[in-house]
């Protein structure tokens, strides 16, 4: 037996002892979750073996049809929202007719692995499995389905009000966001709390804050001339030195504030530059004896709040537009992306409820995960409208890599925890 297997065994034993803190209904929910492990793994394998890279629209729709089948079997009404207007497959929504406070359950259907990826198949080795999307986030979608099944098994599903939103383009969202996230935001306006089922950091951590993500681009111009005349009054310093000045100033003068990061992901410079921002690729031509006249820099910006984003943008803009090197000029443009999810008091109350459930189950305390270690996610689009928590989906590692894996031993524990959390939130004031 491995050390991890030993401690999971201890956890199961302690869970049995701690079950005394659960109500009779909750004990039945727990039993169902534990007995449904293999069925949950079977569903996970089915959807992982369907390629649903964001731009494989038919694959995304096919995964949606699998989950639609599961929700309809629970008596939920489903609807597919086509997103062809923004060159994306679409989103699957499911809803029941309950009357309690509304819970918005958020997942996504797509993965980063397109049809040409070498990583395509679900492979299981005991209680570990690998495959595209096993934890990000088809595993989380399976947690949603089986948490709802657990509530249905004890006859309380229709006592609650649930809207499930499985987004088809979380990994590469369509623009404008006002279109691609319209239905998600509309659902949030109708609900009271949101639960995001992105990757669980661990059994003992959850996400109550996420940084927002936006983009920036710097275009630099200089004078093309023979390199022997660089630094002269007529030619100046050239576009590459001006780009270096800007990036150095960003690094020295903007860097350092908590949760603020910015990354120049691609740079092209020379006498001629061709750049495709959609594909994030391009080419540059130049010679060592010619002063470069063009530079393009594309980057990303992550912030904890709209105020922090505005402040960082202002500082970057001032650097770009002020004190340019001789005979050069530069402009910076910003593109909106994912909003931030600040750590509100309401989010902390949700974490407290999750912590109480975890302790009652014998899984230990749950703390807030460092937002500096998580990227953007769809839950951020709804954080403005309701209390939210995220990171309560599948547990695994290696997301967005060919090493992506899931710990199947924890899958029934996470289903159990999610279902009882949802049950308690039905009547939580």
Produce the secondary structure layout.
Blueprint: H1 3-18, H2 24-35, H3 37-48, H4 57-73, E1 77-82, E2 90-95, E3 102-108, E4 123-125, E5 128-130, H5 138-153, E6 161-167, H6 177-180, H7 182-190, E7 193-196, E8 205-206, E9 212-221, H8 238-254, E10 261-270, E11 272-276, E12 281-285, E13 294-303, H9 306-321, E14 329-338, H10 345-361, E15 367-368, H11 379-382, E16 387-389, E17 396-397, E18 405-407, H12 411-425
Parallel strand pairs: 3-6, 3-7, 7-16, 8-15
Antiparallel strand pairs: 1-2, 2-6, 4-5, 5-18, 9-13, 9-14, 10-13, 11-12, 17-18
Helix pairs in contact: 2-5, 2-12, 3-5, 5-12, 8-9, 10-12
**Strand percentage:** 15-25%
Main sheet makeup? 6 strands, mixed
Whole-Å distance between the termini? 44 Å
Number of strands: 18
Q: How many H/I helices?
A: 12
Q: Going by CATH, what is the homologous superfamily of the largest domain?
A: Zn peptidases
The CATH top-level class label of the largest domain: Alpha Beta
Helix-strand category: alpha+beta
- The strands making up the biggest β-sheet line up spatially as 1-2-6-3-7-16
State the helicity in percent bands: 25-40%
Estimate the global geometry from the Cα principal axes: elongated
Unreliable residue stretches: none
Could you say how many structural domains there are in total?
2
Q: What do the pLDDT scores average to?
A: 93
CATH topology of the largest domain: Aminopeptidase
The assigned CATH architecture of the largest domain is 3-Layer(aba) Sandwich
Q: From the alpha-carbon coordinates, what is the Rg to the nearest angstrom?
A: 25 Å
Order of helices and strands: HHHHEEEEEHEHHEEEHEEEEHEHEHEEEH
């Amino acid at each position: 037996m491995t050390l991890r297997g030993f401690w999971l065994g201890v956890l199961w034993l302690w869970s049995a002892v701690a079950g005394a803190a659960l109500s009779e209904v909750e004990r039945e929910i727990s039993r169902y979750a534990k007995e449904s492990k293999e069925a949950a793994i079977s569903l996970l394998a089915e959807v992982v073996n369907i390629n649903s890279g964001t731009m494989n629209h038919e694959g995304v729709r096919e995964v949606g049809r699998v989950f639609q089948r599961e929700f309809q079997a629970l008596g939920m009404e489903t609807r597919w929202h086509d997103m062809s207007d923004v060159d994306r497959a679409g989103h699957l929504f499911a809803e029941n007719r309950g009357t309690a406070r509304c819970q918005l359950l958020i997942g996504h259907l797509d993965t980063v692995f397109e049809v040409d990826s070498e990583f395509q198949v679900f492979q299981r080795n005991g209680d570990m499995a690998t495959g595209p999307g096993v934890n990000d986030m088809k595993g989380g979608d399976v947690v949603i389905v089986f948490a709802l099944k657990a509530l249905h098994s004890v006859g309380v599903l229709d006592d609650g009000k649930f809207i499930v939103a499985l987004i088809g383009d979380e990994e590469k969202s369509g623009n404008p966001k006002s279109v691609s996230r319209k239905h998600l935001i509309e659902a949030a306006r109708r609900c009271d709390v949101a639960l995001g089922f992105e990757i669980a950091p661990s059994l003992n951590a959850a996400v109550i804050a996420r940084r927002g993500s936006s983009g920036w681009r710097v275009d630099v111009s200089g004078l093309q001339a023979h390199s022997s005349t660089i630094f002269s009054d007529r030619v100046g310093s050239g576009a590459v030195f001006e780009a270096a000045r800007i990036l150095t100033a960003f690094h020295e003068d903007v860097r350092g504030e908590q949760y603020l990061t910015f990354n120049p992901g691609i740079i092209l410079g020379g006498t001629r530059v061709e750049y495709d921002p959609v594909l994030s690729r391009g080419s540059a031509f130049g010679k060592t004896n010619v002063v470069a006249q063009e530079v393009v820099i594309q980057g990303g910006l992550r912030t904890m709040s709209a105020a922090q984003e505005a402040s960082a943008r202002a500082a970057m803009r001032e650097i770009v537009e002020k004190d340019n090197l001789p005979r050069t000029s530069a402009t910076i443009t910003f593109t909106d992306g994912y909003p931030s999810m600040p750590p509100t008091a309401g989010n902390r109350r949700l974490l407290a409820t999750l912590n109480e459930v975890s302790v009652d189950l014998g899984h230990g305390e749950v703390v807030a995960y460092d937002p500096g270690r998580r990227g953007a996610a769809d839950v951020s689009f709804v954080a403005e409208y309701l209390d939210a928590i995220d990171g309560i989906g599948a547990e695994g590692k290696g997301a967005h890599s060919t090493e992506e894996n899931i710990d199947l031993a924890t899958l029934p524990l996470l289903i159990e925890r999610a279902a009882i959390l949802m049950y308690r939130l039905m009547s939580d004031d």
